[in-house]
Amino acid sequence: MKEKSVMRQIREGFTQFTKTQKKIADYICDNYRQIPAMSVQELAQVLDTSDATIIRFAQTLGYKGYLEMRSALKMEDRQYWAPYTQFSRRMRQQASFRAEDENKSAMEMIAANDMECHREFYETFDRSLLDAVVKEINRAETVHIAGFGIDSLIADFLNWYLTVMGYRTVCYTDGGFATARKFSNVKENDLLILLITPRLLKVEKSVLAAAKNRGAHIVCIAQGITLEISSLCTITLTLPDRANELINSYVTYMSLCNMLIIALYKSKETEIAQKLKDSEDMIHFFDLLL
Predict the structure, then answer these.
(1) pTM higher than the cut 0.85
(2) Sign, CA torsion 11/17/21/26
(3) SS3 194
């Protein structure tokens, strides 16, 4: 898992490219949705260059070759199915499910899918990215957490824990005028944590653009981050994109949030432990527990 997207690597390295490399980079930026369907020979023909030149360009970006770069583009620009389309597609696969194991119930298949999600994530996740997010949170003057639709639940979850741990936070879950007004307070030393699952919404694009415009750092957590989003983020954390009929699995999503909370606690254990004690004392002061 790379911290930077193909598009972002192109933008950051563009001034150092040769004339031919700039030609390749310009074409990829203008046609990145078509690249995953093109072979290296087709791309070389369009650009009137050689296969080897395309391959060397991909290697310049840190990939083994064109195929790996193309796969990264495909993953970054992955489109999402709407629930009805997703359900219809899943129903067409019922025969294959039965062929795998006729004795498996729907619940068992969902559980197996969640466990496979977990396995895939933990086998490929780059821990250094989590450490980088912790540094960004500890560096920030204010942490802005944005999640809309189903992501509002995750945003509230992260906001609650970060607040009780002593971080200054602002949470955005409602969109519209409320989000626009609160976003006027975003500053250069702030951090935006943007949650995007399972598909990109207009309000999320607006929030990202506003944060970028104000110079804030941006961490994006999503299932299949799109190219246009990852190219604007400081750090991107990508979760496995696996759907269970009508719903996407949020098990690994929540697990990543738990990992982040524990990593934050360990980064400032003494200070955060005191904040947690202060919070508990205040709960007792207000006599909130039965």
Answers:
(1) no
(2) positive
(3) strand
pLDDT for 160 = 96
Tell me: the pLDDT tens digits for 115-155?
877 787 888 788 899 999 999 999 999 999 999 988 999 99
Instruction: Assess contact for 60 and 16: CB atoms under 8 A.
Output: no
> How close are the terminal C-alpha atoms of the chain, in Å?
46
Compute the distance between CA of residue 27 and CA of residue 119 in angstroms, rounded to an integer. Answer: 36
DSSP class of residue 284? H
Show Cβ contacts of residue 201 under 8 Å, excluding neighbours closer than 6 positions: 148, 149
Residues 201, 83, 147: CA angle, nearest 5 degrees: 30
Backbone torsions φ then ψ of 180, nearest 5 degrees: -60, -40
Residue range 176-225, pLDDT digits in tens: 888 888 888 999 999 999 998 877 778 888 899 899 999 999 999 987 66
Longest dimension (CA), the chain: 75
Task: State which amino acid sits at residue 63.
Answer: Y
The pLDDT of residue 1: 42
Taking Cα atoms as reference points, which of 54, 57, 59, 61 lies closest to residue 4? 61
In angstroms, the Cα distances linking 46 to 33, 40, 50, 194 are 15, 10, 10, 37
β-pairing, 235-239 vs 247-248, is unpaired
List Cβ neighbours of 98 (8 Å cut-off, separation of 6 or more). Answer: none
